[in-house]
Write a structure and sequence with these properties.
This protein is mostly helical. Helix content is 59%, strand content 6%. The chain has helices spanning 3-9, 30-48, 59-68, 86-95, 113-122, 135-155, 161-169, 180-189, 196-203, 207-217, 231-238, 240-255, 265-284, 299-305, 308-316, 318-327, 334-342, 346-356, 361-369, 379-393, 409-415, 419-444; strands at 14-18, 52-56, 73-79, 104-108, 126-129. Helix 2 links the parallel strand 1 and strand 2. Helix 7 packs across helix 18 (346-356), helix 11 (231-238) crosses helix 12 (240-255) and helix 15 (308-316) packs across helix 16.
């Protein structure tokens, strides 16, 4: 929309139509004429109501329009087969706390029962089967849906944004839960009378996690002078808390299984491992790392789980996430593009998932705040922010291929460092990081 047109329509209520646009030559085909005439039925209703129409033809442009007119868009109608996926776009809108007042409708000539069920689960107000043969009935359904959404928005006006996203996560079919061993370990960790033997008994119930834990313990990241062959050995050499953190880490890794289109799982986990390795190296060596208060917190696990929100976006918002990846060619970071394209970031989604999984509070903070840590954030969040940048600088970036990844100014102040010092640290760590990432990746994903 041109600046002049935008200024003219400012303040007017608007309807956002997300559907295919037709070129003049397309309209020579009869079925296209019928399709456009059908869509015109919606236009008549909104013109009668005094609404402006915003017509876009992709999920990306839909999210940009919502960002531009969050208070003026009064409803959204999405064709299921639109680029970016109509269901995915609807899910994104419902995820955004700022859009809880906006009613969303799906429409299609080819609507399956599965589409209807999924739309209902997401909080879509109505699924409008085309062609629209009864204009009065269509208007009544749109009015009824808008009124229902208004009631929902008023009822949830005081809901915390993180709680809102957590609630929306519950609607995703197939969203992974943590394995039984993780839940049992968490119960023991809350019991002051629990014993080491009880922990060992629980861990050994999951042969996969136990084997992975031994492989990880015996990797170059820990370099013990003898092989660890039992959970008892691991507890004695590493300490109970570290073993528990291993179980937590491996549970998170194992939660997301299967492949998602355009989501490079190997590159993703190599980046996360690199962040964990860097964080551990900086944490354990006061000569090179910043002086931070992270007592009782596991820097390796924090690095491993910091980007878990990207797994949710890659697996359950895949069509839109692919569009985010395509936008990376323009020189922005993935975090910036998520804000522009999706209207929601992997930090927000990951933080809510971490809360739902009941991960330790310091990990919830790291997952939700590692890109732009502020003055009152935890020291571990700063450490992971720095480690994230370092891992990218030494070649372990997930999908991003920028020349520079600068540390945020608040982080530089908090860490009492400058960019030259950081570059020097990164250069010192590079060979060690590369060796350990290779070894740990092989151990976990053998």
């Amino acid at each position: 929309m041109a600046d002049q047109e935008r200024a003219k329509s400012a303040g007017k209520p608007k309807t956002l139509i997300v559907d295919r646009k037709f070129k003049p030559e397309d309209l020579k085909i009869r079925r296209h004429q019928e399709y456009v005439r059908d869509l015109g039925q919606c236009f008549k209703i909104f013109q009668k109501w005094g609404y402006d129409i915003i017509w876009v033809d992709s999920g990306v442009d839909a999210m940009k329009a919502l960002k531009l007119y969050p208070d003026e868009i009064r409803n959204v109608i999405i064709e299921i087969l639109v680029p970016g996926g109509g269901i995915t776009v609807a899910r994104l809108i419902r995820f955004k706390p700022d859009y809880k007042h906006i009613p969303v409708f799906l429409m299609s000539l080819q609507m399956t029962q599965s589409d209807l069920d999924e739309g209902k689960r997401l909080g879509v107000l109505d699924c409008l089967a085309r062609p629209f043969t009864d204009l009065d009935q269509l208007e009544e359904r749109l009015k009824k849906g808008a009124e229902a959404q208004l009631e929902i928005a008023e009822r949830e006006a005081d809901v915390d944004p993180k709680e809102h996203i957590t609630k929306e996560l519950e609607k995703i079919q197939g969203l992974p839960a943590m394995p039984t061993v993780y839940n049992e370990i968490e119960k023991l960790s809350r019991d002051p009378d629990s014993t080491t033997d009880q922990y060992a008994d629980v861990i050994e119930l999951d042969p996969g996690i136990t084997a992975q834990m031994f492989q990880l313990c015996n990797s170059s990241a820990f370099s013990f002078n003898r092989q660890i062959t039992s959970v008892g050995d691991a507890v004695n050499l590493l300490g109970l808390q570290t073993v528990v953190d291993f179980v937590r880490t491996l549970s998170v890794v194992g939660a997301f299984k299967g492949k998602a289109a355009a989501f490079d799982t190997q590159e993703f986990w190599q980046h996360c491992i690199a962040v964990g390795v860097v964080a551990k190296l900086l944490h354990d060596d006061p000569e090179i790392g910043p002086k931070l208060d992270t007592v009782g917190e596991d820097p390796f696990m924090a690095g491993m789980v910091h980007d878990i929100g990207k797994q949710v976006l890659g697996h359950f918002f895949n069509e839109m996430f692919q569009m985010v990846l395509e936008e990376l060619k323009g020189g922005q970071t993935m975090y910036e593009i998520e804000q522009d394209v999706l209207g929601i970031t992997h930090e927000q989604v990951g933080e809510s998932l971490a809360s739902k999984w009941q991960l330790p509070e310091y990990l919830v903070d790291v997952i939700g705040k590692h890109h732009e840590p502020g003055p009152d954030y935890s020291d571990m969040t700063y450490l992971i922010h720095m480690s994230d940048i370092c891992s990218k600088q030494v070649g372990y970036a997930f999908a991003e291929h920028l020349k520079e990844f600068p540390l945020s100014e608040p982080a530089l102040e908090k860490l009492e460092m400058d960019q030259d010092t950081l570059t020097e640290i990164f250069n010192k760590l590079e060979s060690t990081v590369r060796a350990e990432v290779t070894d740990i990746f092989a151990a976990i994903f053998k």
